[in-house]
Amino acid sequence: MKHRALLLALALAPSALLHAATPDKGEQAFVATLQLGATPQVRYLDSNGRPLDYTAFAQELQQRRTFSISRDSQAGMAMLRIRPPGSHAGEPGRFSFGRGDAFPPFALPSLHGGTQRLSDFHGRYTLVSFFFAECAPCMAEVPTLNAFARAHGDVNTVAITFEDAASARGFVEDHGLNWNVLYHGQSLTDTLGVGVYPTLMLLDPNGRVAGAAVGMTLSDDPAKRLTDLEGWIAQWKQASAGAAR
């Protein structure tokens, strides 16, 4: 009897192990709707930007919650974030991305033509400026951003707006922004929780957040503005490098 029981246990073991290793079928079906290819990589966040597993994410959806999604279908990657109760697209939750957090994957059109992805900026530090066309502080920071880009060719610089191409191009022409500009970034700004402008973020060479300044305020003196910005970047780089050790 004991021998038969042992054989039965061994016969069932591979099946049980296989079942345990199989991803949740509900999640498989959900991820399939995102059209991310054969090997999708999906991250889930709650409305405060904290990581969730799929089960907790699905429970939030059952409470009539909606979500924002930033993705790069070519890379098979997406980040989904639950929206605050009653909010809709364009009403971001709290900005909560800190040092070491993975920046959301994205694929956005550029005023230079073509599509830019997060992976295009890997290998070097990247300074990201979030703006919109009627933002007065965004207009005021343009000379400082241009000066930084001229002085730091070793750093990628990219400006992102939730607006359309015409609005983005108008801002560039009216205020002389020399950066690479991406538009239609609403899903990205919602997922990040960017609701105050301008917002600056520094990404490390691996696409993780090295530092951020939300609703930043720079000195009125042009030279001091650049010095302030360079000081922030240097501090963020140093802290990021220290955390990586």
TrEMBL record:
SUPFAM superfamilies: Thioredoxin-like. Keywords: Signal. The keyword Signal applies. InterPro entries: AhpC/TSA, Thioredoxin-like_sf, Thioredoxin_domain, Thioredoxin_ResA/DsbE_sf. Transmembrane segments: none annotated. Residues 97-238 form the Thioredoxin domain. Pfam families: AhpC-TSA. This is TlpA family protein disulfide reductase. Residues 1-20 form the signal peptide. PANTHER family: CHROMOSOME UNDETERMINED SCAFFOLD_47, WHOLE GENOME SHOTGUN SEQUENCE, THIOL:DISULFIDE INTERCHANGE PROTEIN DSBE. It comes from the Bacteria.
